[in-house]
């Protein structure tokens, strides 16, 4: 689309921007992104794999209005419009496929940092709950009649 056409028809320029954005998001989930470039080492072929998550959201709105019934002398007017969008792409390595003369095997990628952080979080939660449960219980004072 030319710049002249985009300036005379702004809704087409918005549609083109939306279409370009969606194409970028769809390209992120392409099989070449999930499976990395194969690496050949002698008789062994190594293929890195990844998990890719694409999330996108878009929204538009509009409105208008006049109120002549309640106040016919002063015409009320209104208008409005809006739009927005956003998204996120997350990817992480999950495994390596190794093809050799001995056969094909899959070696998972283990992120020890995430495992350690999950363990520390769980331990902190348990210590906090034990501390809370072992503390003196606070109750309301008894009412005298």
User: Shape, please?
Assistant: flat
Number of helices: 4
Order of helices and strands: HHHEEEEH
Query: Low-confidence parts lasting 5 or more residues at pLDDT below 50?
Result: none
Biggest β-sheet, characterized?
4 strands, antiparallel
Through-space gap between termini: 85 Å
Residues in helices, as a percent range: 25-40%
Mean pLDDT: 79
Going across the biggest sheet, name each strand in turn.
1-2-3-4
Rg, Cα atoms, Å: 30 Å
Please report which band the strand proportion falls in: under 5%, 5-15%, 15-25%, 25-35%, 35-45% or over 45%: 35-45%
Number of strands: 4
Structural class: alpha+beta
What does this structure look like?
The radius of gyration is 30 Å and the shape is flat. The protein is built from four helices and four strands. It has a four-stranded antiparallel sheet. The protein has 145 residues and is α+β, with helices and mostly antiparallel strands.
Write the topology of this structure.
Elements: H1 3-8, H2 10-28, H3 31-34, E1 39-41, E2 44-67, E3 76-100, E4 103-108, H4 112-134
């Amino acid at each position: 689309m030319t710049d002249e056409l985009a300036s005379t028809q702004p809704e087409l320029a918005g549609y083109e921007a939306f279409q370009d954005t969606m194409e970028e998001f769809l390209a992120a989930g392409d099989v070449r992104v999930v499976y990395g470039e194969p690496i050949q080492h002698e008789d062994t072929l190594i293929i890195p794999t990844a998990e890719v998550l694409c999330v996108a959201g878009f929204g538009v709105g509009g409105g208008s209005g006049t109120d002549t019934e309640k106040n016919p002398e002063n015409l009320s007017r209104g208008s409005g419009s809006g739009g927005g969008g956003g998204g996120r792409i997350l990817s992480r390595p999950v495994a390596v496929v190794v093809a050799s003369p001995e056969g094909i095997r899959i070696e998972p990628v283990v992120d020890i940092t995430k495992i350690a952080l999950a363990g520390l979080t769980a331990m902190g939660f348990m210590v906090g709950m034990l501390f809370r449960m072992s503390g003196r219980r606070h109750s309301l004072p008894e009412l005298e009649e």
